[in-house]
User: What shape does this take?
Amino acid sequence: MEKGKIQYDRYRFSALQWLRYLTEGSGLGIFVVWLCYHAPPAIPAAVPIAVWYAAEKRRQMKEERKKRLGYHFKDFLASLHTALTAGYSVEKGVAEAWKDVRGLYGEGDELAAELRRMTAQLSLQIPVETLFAELGERSGVEDIKNFAEVLAIAKRTGGRMDQILEEAGRTIRERIDTEQEIEAAQAARRYEQQIMSLVPVGIILYLRFSFHGFVEQMYGNLPGVLIMSICLAIYLCAFWLGKRIVRIQV
Assistant: This one.
């Protein structure tokens, strides 16, 4: 694999990110242990919570990066069509569209970096359809894969490249627009799910501070530990199920 290419199927944390998210996860784990068990010997149970938290953050950031690449690809298609309409070849159009994407999202954007690399490789006479096919496979973004296939067919059959790519680009843009609309609608549902996830925590905190003597009987004995462990397991299952429900793939 060529050095510097982004591997979209994995996400590597920097040392600072590992430190940050493991620290946050440890804080969350200690809070859960205090809330459910209120016993120092149970503190080691915070370790798997910290590891899970960091892994979940990494998964979220990987998904967000892939989704961002797909969304920005829509703007690239619009810029490419403009360049083709102005009379540029596909290869020159990619270079022009790269400038537009770089202006919109900055040099550090994933798609801007990919287009910069493509522009350099096009100068080495590497076929443009090969570059997009490679990016589609590496990123796993279906819209990029589909575009690469259409581009390869258009290059083989000839014809009005701008018309062929505009039709393909319109279909892809409509799909991305639909996905963004669903994402916006789901944002409210995710917020509700987060609020509902905090309700049991709030109830336990309220009971601990308002009815301390009553709740204290749940700590420091085997029946209490078993009951709290069962409740925690049910809560975690419900939390996981809620996250799955509000996550929609288009």
About this structure: The mean pLDDT is 86. The CA atoms of residues 98 and 115 lie 6 Å apart.
